[in-house]
User: What shape does this take?
Amino acid sequence: MKIDGKVLADKILNDLSLEVVKLKEKGVTPTLAVIQIGDDHGSTAYIRQKQKSAEQIGVTLILSHQSSVISHQKLQSIIETYNADPAVHGIIVQRPLPKTLHASNILPSKDVDGFLTHSPYPVPVAEAVLTIFKQMQLTGPGPVRKIVVIGRGETAGKPIAEALIKRGYDISVVHSQTPNPDEIIKTADIVISCVGRPHVVRRHNIKKETILISVGLSRDSEGKLHGDYEEDEIEDIASFYTPTPGGVGPVNVACLMANLVKAASKLL
Assistant: This one.
């Protein structure tokens, strides 16, 4: 059965829109600055999702689109400008970034992506997975479920694993250096795949009634979006699964907007 991320996201966004109305009545319009480096198609698609959600709840999104050859000093300067602007409540440097660049000078109070070590905000993608868990009643008392997170990247696998461990879940992390990964994945009650490559999860490496959550995304030669598994291959063996698109992605963006509204609320 499909897990409809859009329905979950719309509920979060509808609640946030009411909070935004109250903030605007007090003279505060939540504002997110997004810095895009280069023309990565995935980044452009993610930003478009953010723009749609921002419009839906009535917040402002400022897009600063920079060349892929931007210097580190120039990027730092743009961030510092937004850091100093009291009308900007959240700053995102859209990933992926060239290896020569990093965005460590974002103020913690504006780090709505939650990537700084001491950020006051949860990483939205980890919060999205937890939101899906809550919707499926996978929290609180009940049978202990074995969870396998595939991938340990900075933007998804690692923060998701850390968030689950923090909440006491029994998890294993599988990555490119893991011996016999299929054997580990086959033991899981819940598989969260964060690789961004087709066919990471197949019929043969999951057990029946597994819950599948695909965080990883990739595009084929025709530009079609795919998750880490093909739905028509696993739909009769998985008990629940997130589709692509329309699974984790919308909830991820909604959780980002929740962080932004929280950041703006702190000014009152």
Q: What stands out?
A: Strands lie at 31-37, 60-66, 90-93, 146-150, 170-174, 190-193, 211-214, 218-219, 225-226, 240-241. The chain has eight helices and ten strands. The first strand starts at residue 31 and ends at 37.
